Amino acid sequence: MKKKLSWLCIVVVVVLCISFLVWRNRVVRVADIIDYDMITKVELWLNDDCVTLTENRDIKEFTDILGSMKLKKKLRSESDGFVFSIVIYQKNSNKNQLTLFQDIIIDGKYYECDRDYCDDMLKLYDSFQK
Questions:
Q1: Helix, strand or coil for residue 70?
Q2: CA 73 to CA 75: how far, in whole Å?
Q3: Does residue 44 sit in helix, strand or coil?
């Protein structure tokens, strides 16, 4: 009986480890988290300066960058600071808060990006800076 219980415990631990690895390595798209059709306004904050996007074509450029991101869930990161703080306003009065650095935080959840998107966001920010 003890042998069966030991094997059962080992199987449970192995299943939990595999489940964790699958959860951690699953690719997530930003569109799975944020509905692009509901976006009415985007604020891109860099330090104390803000660029506001309200036109559909401007928001489309922004969502194209988000759409190209391949994310993986990760545990909390120890990184300080941010490159961009982004507030997305939606038609239903909801807001999404994104913090973009080497990784991205979306509404308090941490994701690892497949590459650094800060340069892409900086180009977009500079193109709307007046």
A1: coil
A2: 7
A3: strand
Task: Tell me how long the chain is.
Answer: 130
Alpha carbon 63 to chain centroid distance?
A: 12
Q: How far apart are CA 93 and CA 91, in angstroms?
A: 5
Q: Per the structure block, which two tokens stand in for 21?
A: 């690895």
pLDDT tens readout for residues 9-64: 888 888 887 777 766 667 788 888 898 989 999 999 998 899 999 999 999 999 99
**Residues 21-36 as b or e (16 or more Cβ within 10 Å = b):** eeeeeeebebeeebeb
Summarize pLDDT for 95-125 with one digit per residue, the tens. Answer: 999 999 888 889 988 888 888 898 999 999 9
Beta bridge partners of residue 46, listed in sequence order: 49
pTM score, whole prediction = 0.76
